[in-house]
């Protein structure tokens, strides 16, 4: 099985605040995207990485990535992304050659995922699961609410049993044909917030394997503080 990784990196990072697109922000002096690419390249299973760049930034991202060489076994391609994450992933999948049969989809915004997690996802797909997601139990209790205009208290509708919930990370791993079919079938805006969610809508099985604390997503400014601390601890 030849395995590729698609890295959606086309988002602006609105929740992180104004500045450079999120994937290009520095972490320990190196762009977040470079960390994410290295995290995928660290897995010996991954032979091709497709980076999905901001729509107007593919040339810049290409140049940047060529300044940070990868292991010889890993090919790299950069394609322009779209207006939504789902569209960006679809554009990344379209760039994969027929020789690929397993694909990982990994957020550039999860730069610090350990290689053990990547390998565990690949192993589960190669072991026969068409869709695999790494995930962790929740620390917080979760409430379902009836959303109200900003500032108004929101009535609680229910409390799902926490022990049954998992917080899902990336890389998510798929049989390529299964994920392509999901992206071709499920229309945008139906509320799927991850790739496995699209596969679930097809009625195909999705399984969870253990995720990792360091695979957290850099979303808000405090996440950058944590990411810098994790990097500093690794370098110590
Ligand atoms: N992404 C993408 N194309 C988009 C939107 C998002 O490739 N049109 C990517 C982001 O670059 C990121 C991943 O999807 O690596 C997860 O999205 P998220 O964390 O929401 O990043 P942003 O959309 O950039 O952040 P925000 O929602 O705060 O603007
Ligand atoms: Mg987003």
Automatic annotation (TrEMBL):
It holds the Pfam family IspD. Transmembrane segments: none annotated. Keywords: Isoprene biosynthesis, Nucleotidyltransferase, Transferase. SUPFAM superfamilies: Nucleotide-diphospho-sugar transferases (SSF53448). It is an enzyme of class 2 (transferase). The record marks 15, 22 as: Transition state stabilizer. Pathway: Isoprenoid biosynthesis; isopentenyl diphosphate biosynthesis via DXP pathway; isopentenyl diphosphate from 1-deoxy-D-xylulose 5-phosphate: step 2/6. GO terms for biological process: isopentenyl diphosphate biosynthetic process, methylerythritol 4-phosphate pathway. It comes from the Bacteria. Its EC number is 2.7.7.60. InterPro entries: IspD, IspD/TarI, IspD/TarI_cytidylyltransf_bact, ISPD_synthase_CS, Nucleotide-diphossugar_trans. Signal peptide: none annotated. Belongs to the IspD/TarI cytidylyltransferase family. IspD subfamily. PANTHER family: 2-C-METHYL-D-ERYTHRITOL 4-PHOSPHATE CYTIDYLYLTRANSFERASE, CHLOROPLASTIC. HAMAP family: IspD (MF_00108). Catalyzes the formation of 4-diphosphocytidyl-2-C-methyl-D-erythritol from CTP and 2-C-methyl-D-erythritol 4-phosphate (MEP). This is 2-C-methyl-D-erythritol 4-phosphate cytidylyltransferase. It comes from Streptomyces angustmyceticus. The gene is ispD.
